[in-house]
């Protein structure tokens, strides 16, 4: 049974759950979520692996992100604090980008890499995506209130939090569940009310360094995800040597929540190959 704990990492208290025994697997949540998004995979792999899921600073039950911070450094610091020398990293959306940064910064610490609908820090989103997000998401709340929330000069209106969570959920996921909506409510409430912060990334960034990745890699793509995010899946699967790609039909940006059994089965197969040393099998 998982028990939520807190660990102090790089000046922040990070909330995490841990269960099972065996080769470690660390789950890194999406920027539109928190550690709850991994419920099915966390429970499904605990019989064969030591599984760890955590809330990044500024999310879920972890402390606020204040000032200068770096998420991939927090990920490696979490592993240090929990005595994890080497682990498979499973990241979704921006969590995938942080896992990728960690794999480049400390390749000896990463036994495998699963990048699910991943972001790619250092790569600018094209204008087509910015325009679509402005039209379909940001328009849910009047621009003057969005500016006030960004400047922290106005407390978040619960109605605006709800409206933005619903708009973001529909932008990312064809049929958003209550869990997806609840995670997004928490994201916007924290983002609009928490302290100002500055996020650092790996330098030089991963966008131009994919050929340096040595960890066995699985790229998971939702075929109903935002097209520009699917383009990143293509860059990752083409740029990382030996990477395999799994395309999931009828799936948006959060496959671990939308297709929990399919994602858990894919992870189980991928991790079994890493443990056995067998050649990768094709994924249907």
TrEMBL record:
It comes from the Bacteria. It holds the Pfam family Abhydrolase_1. GO terms for molecular function: hydrolase activity. Residues 24-130 form the AB hydrolase-1 domain. Coiled coil: none annotated. Gene3D superfamilies: alpha/beta hydrolase. Keywords: Hydrolase. This is Alpha/beta hydrolase. It comes from Amycolatopsis tucumanensis.
């Amino acid at each position: 049974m998982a028990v939520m704990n807190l660990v102090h990492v790089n000046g922040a208290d990070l909330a995490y759950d841990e269960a099972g025994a065996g080769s470690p697997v660390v789950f890194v949540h999406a920027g539109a979520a928190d550690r709850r998004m991994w419920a099915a995979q966390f429970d499904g792999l605990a019989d064969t692996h030591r599984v760890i899921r955590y809330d990044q600073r500024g999310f879920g039950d972890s402390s606020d992100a204040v000032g200068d911070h770096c998420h991939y450094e927090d990920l490696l610091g979490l592993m240090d604090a929990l005595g994890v020398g080497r682990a498979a990293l499973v990241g979704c959306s921006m969590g995938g980008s942080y896992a990728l940064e960690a794999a480049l910064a400390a390749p000896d610490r990463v036994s495998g890499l699963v990048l699910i609908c991943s972001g790619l820090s250092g790569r600018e989103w094209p204008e087509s995506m910015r325009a679509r997000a402005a039209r379909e998401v940001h328009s849910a709340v009047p621009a003057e209130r969005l500016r006030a929330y960004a400047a922290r000069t106005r407390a978040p209106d619960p109605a605006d939090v709800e409206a933005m969570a619903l708009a973001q959920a529909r932008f990312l996921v064809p049929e958003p569940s209550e869990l997806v909506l609840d995670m997004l409510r928490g994201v916007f409430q924290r983002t609009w009310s928490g302290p100002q912060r500055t996020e650092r990334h790996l330098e030089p960034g991963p966008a131009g360094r994919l050929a340096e990745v040595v960890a066995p890699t699985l790229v998971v793509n939702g075929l109903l995800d935002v097209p520009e995010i699917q383009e990143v899946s293509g860059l990752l699967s083409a740029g990382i040597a030996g990477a395999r790609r799994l395309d999931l039909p009828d799936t948006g940006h959060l496959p671990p929540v939308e297709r929990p059994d399919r994602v858990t089965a894919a992870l189980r197969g991928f991790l079994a190959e890493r443990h056995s040393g067998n050649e990768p099998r094709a994924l249907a």
